[in-house]
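Summary for the funding panel

The consortium committed to producing paired sequence-structure records for every protein in the target list. Below we show the first two records in order, beginning with the earlier of the two.
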Amino acid sequence: MKYLILGAGPAGLTAANKLMQKGITDFLVLEKESTAGGLCRSVDVDGAPFDIGGGHFLDVRRPQVNEFLFEYMPENEWNKYNRDSRIVVNGNIINHPIEANIWQMKIEDQVEYLKSIAIAGCNIGTPMPETFVDWIYWKLGSKVAEDYMIPYNQKMFSKELNQLGTYWLEKLPNVSFEETLLSCLTKKAYGTQPGHAQFYYPKKYGYGELWLRMANEIKNNIVYNQLVKGINFTTNTIKTFDGEKYHAEIIITTVPWMEFDEIIGMPDDIKESIRELKFSSIQIEYFSSHLDTSCHWIYFPDPKLPYHRILVRHNFCPNSKGYWTETNSERIGMEELNNNFKYMNQYAYPLNTIRKPEIMRKLLSWSKRQNVIGLGRWGEHQHYNSDVTVDLAMKLIDTLEPR
């Protein structure tokens, strides 16, 4: 075939449907699971949708993406929400992000945080450090670092934070002492809103319904239960664990590069560097009890709690109850034993390790010259939300097939 797409998550499904819209049917999608959606799949648990990949929502900020997706699931089938997310820190329950909402804390805590921010390295002109932990102290001050950012990142990503680079932290806002003081005095937030400040979620279904509908549009061009074993760059061939072989002019891979057991025709240094790529695995667990809160999700930096985030299902998924937790696999065993529904996502978050940008630049550049294109969260090893992934897939196909 002309195009072979590995993975039927948001990236693969978008690429496939864009091809179909352009009248190109000479493509095939391989998916290792028995159903489509990737990290955005939903299942029925306790009479309502449960998103097995954790908290996935459709951001409103990319109208061209939403216009495309609404062709498969019309806008009138979605509810639109203003994000309400909270942080529980030192007995305070405040809005996210922490640096904009210190004014919601107890007055004595506000004083301590303000003192800390006033002497943060970025506010007193000390040189920017190179290691992750030192950078957090430098950027946010010791209180925000020790009470929130360091324990939360350890819970979500890894105990060894200094394996992470600082290049991805530049998007964090400056924590100006003057602005934070003004915020505390005027009792209102400052700065820009975080991602998903407004988001869509289906009225009757889980988020996975969207991707099932997109898969149905290409049902004759998708093969399920096909776990990729190897890739041959010399012949542009994919081999699966059941012995099937697929050849294409162009291969678009959205699967983790670590999933290829066999790689033929790739330079040894690039092949070896794939082993350096790190990721975190996250377990999603359902609880049926009702939480007395109006928020959509809550962050928990407290290291004594196994989970780092709670998604309050009944506040965004109509006619549902309960909530679910997200827990890094490194922390499994801290939680109480129970019979709750659980799902482990082996590949949840790519880790921004120090050498990752260099590794991926070389890998993706070389692979593209062989007509193998990495796309999406795992094809590019980037922590993309689904709307970003869809946008990238749409642009890729428009580049490959401009007509």
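The next record, for a separate protein in the list, is shown here:
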Amino acid sequence: MDGLRFQCLPGCTRCCTQKGFVYLTEEDLERAAAFVGMSAAAFERRYVYRTKHLRRLRIPRRKCPFLEEGGCSIHPAKPTQCRLFPFWPELVETRGNWRRVGRYCPGIGTGKLVQIGTAMEIASEMKRAYPTLYQEPR
């Protein structure tokens, strides 16, 4: 695989409606809180579920609280995970996973060619942002 084609299509929110979690770094939490005009503590109380090692958005009824008809209401401050999609390690490292996501993401296979090295570099940001999700098994 030389590269991957992807272009986020205006108005598409299919990635936002898939089953799963939206994880937050501490910086994500602070940036989103400031964007909506809340303190980080108030934002966390209202929107975040925290475990020992991870923070994630509370997703009531499988819908992100920031997803609106026109798209993401916090787009300029959206979490790292959302910003990097679909360049996640589990998707760029395995052709089958990339194709599987392409079944619901119309932007996969369109746009400019992203060299595989660049895609892997983008994906490495996910590993840095969420190290507990990408720990090597012992």
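Regarding this second record: The first strand starts at residue 3 and ends at 6. The longest helix spans residues 116-129.
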